[in-house]
Each structure stands twice: as structure tokens, then as C-alpha cells.
Amino acid sequence: MIRDDLARLAVKYLDNENLQSFMLNLDVILSNYNITQSKNEIVKYDGSQDDEAIRMFFVTKKIAGFSDKSVAFYSTVIKQFRKMINKPLGMITTNDVRLFLGKKQVYDHCSPTHLNNMRRILSSLFKWLTAENYIVKNPMLAVDYIKEPKRIKKAFSEIEVERLRENCLDIRDKALIEVLLSTGCRIGEVAGMNYEDVDFVNKQISVIGKGNKERIVYLNAKAIFELNRYIGVYEIESGPLFISKRGKKRLTIGGLSNIITQIGKRAKVNDCHPHRFRRTVATFALNRGMPIEQVQQLLGHEDIKTTTIYAKSDEQSLKEAHRKYVI
């Protein structure tokens, strides 16, 4: 008992009279507390806090500005991982993670890019769990990056761009194509555009990008012209910028992507999807001399390393440079 331990210590330094006074005051003080003796035994980790830890991890990500789409993707990967491994988080080993990624590759035929995305999510989770002292050791530290095949992702050629323009059947689709070619926006950013975001005087649009970060993108003459025509014909005065023909509802990412795919089929342009417009804007801008730092701002890239992907010369650009500079 703590009272007896203190008494044995005090008797070494106090005479009998002072000891009695000390013990009396000690009893008064101790009466205000409920004290139990600590047990020096190892508490077995059972993973009972894992669900709460995962919940707090997602709360942290949401506070950091992650979109609902990103949180949903993280959640899917983590649920798959926990279901397959079926261990408390604190008992997961490096080999467990390797086993999970290996099975996803063999049985689900996941590409190296998708495997690296899952690896990145698990690294984020276990790094956070370690920092927050939920677990002692981070099992991801020895899980290496998975080598991805290096493929040159081509932009549209100028001829392909013109063919796409010619195969727009609707004035709305023409406006969509020109906005994509002028701004280099992600298709999700285009889907979220509102009429009120467009500044026709300054030829710009305010968009919300990844991490709910706002940036300004710019409209060239063709985009301004087609947007004005489309807005007039569809009688848009407020709300969503790109809407369906029936019901005048906001077009979703899927709806906009389908429009782009159909235009590509009619134009006989292979691999026609929204992100290729973004790649085309970056490639054209860099080839025409725009500084890479400005291209980074235009595209809304957090890290300039992402922008440098577009700076790699394609075969045609290299051929033209060779003709120009090499004797």
C-alpha cells in the first residue's frame, strides 16, 4: 500500500513527533484519491482497437482534404487487405503484405500500376498507425516499389484533334471538347463546373481540383466561342455547366466520359478518353515552349515530378529535333 511505502521512507528522515504529524496530513490527502496498485504484467495485444484506429485514419485523411472518391478507394483496398490477411493490425508482417499483393497480381490480374496504388495506400495506413502508436513496427518499410513497364502514353496528334472536332454531333459536345483542350482539366473537375464559375470577361474558370484545392484555368478563343453558343442554345443561366439533353441534369464523370468515347469512335481515333486531352494540353504546351513550372500550375500538379512525365519527347518530336539540331 502506498501509505506504508511512504511511512517506511519518511521514518529515515523524521523524528517520532514529526512523523506522526506527517502521517496525519498524508491520510487526509490520500482520502481524496482512489489509488490502486499497478500490475507489472504484459498486456496481450488482441486487435480490439483496430476498427477504431481505421476510423480515425479516415477522419485524418478527410481533414487533410481527401475527396470522397479517394476515401472510398482507400476504404476498398484496406477492407480487401484485412479480409484476406485476417490478422490484427499490430501482428501483420512484411510477408503478409507481400502475400496480399502477390495474390492480387496472380488471381485478380492487377497491373503493376494498380499494385503500386494499393501498396501506397497500405504504406500510408501503417505509417500513420506507427506514428500514432497503435502499432510498434511498420511492416511496409521493406515492401519495395513494384517495377512498372515504361510505356510512352501518346497525346492526340493535331490531325486527331481536328477529327474529334469534326465528329461532335451536338453543340454541347463541341463546347466540352474545346474546354478540355483549352484548360487541361481532369474530367472530374469539368463535371463539377458551374455556370457561375465561368468568367467570360477574363476568359477563365475557377475549378476545384484534387484535395479540394481551387485553381484558375484559362479559356482560349475557340473555347469561349463554343461555350457561349452552347450556353445560349441550352439556356443555361445558373447551376451545372455541362448538363444532359433530357432533364437538364448535371452530367456525371461517367456521362462525360461516354460522350468522349463516342466522339472518338466516330472520328476513328483510338484510345480516346478524357485524360488523353489533359496529356495533349501538357504535351502541346511544352513542345511550344511553355515553362514546365507554368504547365505544373495549369494542370494543378502538387509535385513537378508528375508534370515531367509529359515532358518526355515522343518519337515524332525527337525526329523533328534531330532534323533541326543534328548535322
UniProtKB/TrEMBL annotation:
Keywords: Cell cycle, Cell division, Chromosome partition, Cytoplasm, DNA integration, DNA recombination, DNA-binding. GO terms for cellular component: cytoplasm. It is found in: Cytoplasm. GO terms for molecular function: DNA binding. GO terms for biological process: cell division; chromosome segregation; DNA integration; DNA recombination. InterPro entries: CB, DNA_brk_join_enz, Integrase-like_cat_sf, Integrase_catalytic, Integrase_recombinase_N, Integrase_SAM-like_N, Tyrosine_recombinase_XerCD. Its main location: cytoplasm. This is Integrase.
